[in-house]
From TrEMBL, chain A:
PROSITE patterns: ABC_TRANSPORTER_2 (PS50893)
SUPFAM superfamilies referenced in this protein's UniProt entry, alphabetically: P-loop containing nucleoside triphosphate hydrolases
PANTHER family: ABC TRANSPORTER ATP-BINDING PROTEIN, CONSERVED COMPONENT OF ABC TRANSPORTER FOR NATURAL AMINO ACIDS-RELATED
Descriptive protein name: Amino acid/amide ABC transporter ATP-binding protein 1, HAAT family
One cellular-component annotation, GO: plasma membrane
UniProt entry tagged with the keyword Plastid: no
Protein keywords: ATP-binding, Nucleotide-binding, Transport
Residue ranges that the Swiss-Prot or TrEMBL entry lists as coiled coil: none
From TrEMBL, chain B:
Location of this chain's protein in the cell: Cell membrane
Membrane topology per record: Multi-pass membrane protein
Keyword check for Transport: no
Organism: Roseovarius marisflavi
Pfam families with a match to the protein in the record: BPD_transp_2 (PF02653)
UniProt keyword annotations, A-Z: Cell membrane, Membrane, Transmembrane, Transmembrane helix
Keyword Membrane: yes
GO molecular function: branched-chain amino acid transmembrane transporter activity
Highest taxon of source: Bacteria
Gene Ontology CC, one term: plasma membrane
Protein name per the record: Amino acid/amide ABC transporter membrane protein 2, HAAT family
PANTHER family: ABC TRANSPORTER ATP-BINDING PROTEIN, HIGH-AFFINITY BRANCHED-CHAIN AMINO ACID TRANSPORT SYSTEM PERMEASE
UniProt cross-references to InterPro entries, sorted A to Z: ABC_transp_permease (IPR001851), LivM-like (IPR043428)
Amino acid sequence: MTSPLLDIRGISKSFGAIRASEDVSLTLMRGEIHALIGPNGAGKSTLIKQIAGNLKPDSGSIWFDGRDVTSLDTVARAQAGLGRTFQISSLAMEMSVLQNAVLGALGKRGRVMRFWRDVMRDAALLQVAHAALSEVGLAAAVGTRVADLSHGQRRQLEVAVALTQSPKAFLMDEPMAGLGGEGTARLTPFLDGLRHRAPILLVEHDMDAVFALADRISVLVYGRIIATGKPDAIRQNAEVREAYLGDEALT
Amino acid sequence: MRREPLLNAAVFLGLLAVVLWARATDEPFTITLATRVAILALAGVGLNLALGLGGLVSLGHAVFFGIGGYAMGILASHAQSYSPLIEWPVLIEGTKSMPVIWLVAMAASGLAALGIGALSLRTSGVYFIMITLAFGQMFYYFAISWPAYGGEDGLSIYVRNGFPGLNTLDPIQFFAICYVILGLALWLFSRLSRSAFGLALGAARQNGERVMAVGIAPYRLRLVAFALSGVITGLAGALFADLNRFVSPTMFSWQTSGEIMVFVILGGVARLFGPVVGAAVFILLEHVLGGLSEFWHIYLGAVLLVVVLFARGGIIGLIAGREVRHD
């Protein structure tokens, strides 16, 4: 068995008396989509922040690509190859779609301290940016200011910027949020194909998408992972049914 | 929407036209006013790099302006009294050479900006404003209480410093020096804002989280921007001191920081020619309204209020519209 790309080993995080994460262990294997689900307030956001590096766990460790990244910040984890998309689109709003994508490509390439050459004429960066934008279907909107984009287009751009990073793993926080049926239907096959380039840790509320995409599902309730397994096993799991899914979601 | 480059060119050539007209009609005072505009605009270009591109609201840029001024004052005063600056371990003499003074002014203000930036960029928002203001006051009171270089009275330099091949005492030749330097600084600013560094810095201003998520640390970007900003404002300080042939602690005062910020806001934050238009309007108001009333700052305040409330891109934004640059 190969070693997991992302290995979260027993992390805990408390805020005062609230235990937001309690001994959470989670792995992401190469080539898989691992979905993390749980009701509101289960601690998904806190967990994501610890994986991305915004928060430091009180105990436990996080391993990525064979090294301990527990003490690294978000910048270092991004450089190590963790590509993140945000639950609420987090983009440079006054810039164009293309500029946002070029920024992603620039972050990947490094060499940011270049003061003279026009970055929007850098053929190598432009190529990466254009490729990512056309993959998500934003090729026609390259010149649009992000502030003028629709909500759905911003979600697409989030994914495109992550693509420009050609990360080793994706950390996607509700990529389907607010997309509506049609948008979700378009994004689902795209993520399906993406797993072979880099595995995805997917936090998602849309259960149709989760069960369509996930190789494995972990269920987080009150900061604890109560079950991890294949979609079918999760569907049958009595504890999960009781805690979260409810019968109608399973049919 | 190509109005802004046209406007910029008109402003830049307009300043030159005013000076040529003043020379033709023998109005040296007008040339001096235009030189003031060029120098203060240069200080504003420096601040605009931090404030406009980087979103760093510094209320302490008088530090760099003052350091530039004192670099000139100290070097020139030693040269005019024929007393060496330092005798041991190496002999360092004063100088009356502008290029040397500029280099010293830029190096000293750049180093100060690195130090101040390294500390204050750990904070943000109103704390950043307060900490830069505090540094400014530190330098102000230090200059007041430093008797070796005039203390509160400041330092007078009897003859303007020299530039190889030029007669700097001729107002138009000194204007030419300042005008060319302003042009070079604007060119640098325009290249910088379109460079990889400028893109990342602008993105960090708009959304620090986004920049970090693609693996770029905003702190380093901001520190470099702050240091470059200090270098340019410091150079402006050296020229300003040479224009007046006088330096005093006023250059370090928080009012000076505020005025530089007014140039930028009045003209248009982050707009290439914002500081130029801002400084020109400021000097014009000072000259015209200052003649009418001692309390001309009230009218300046009213103008500033109108600009801030109704023209978010400053005067440039009002005329040229929202910034568009999506290539």
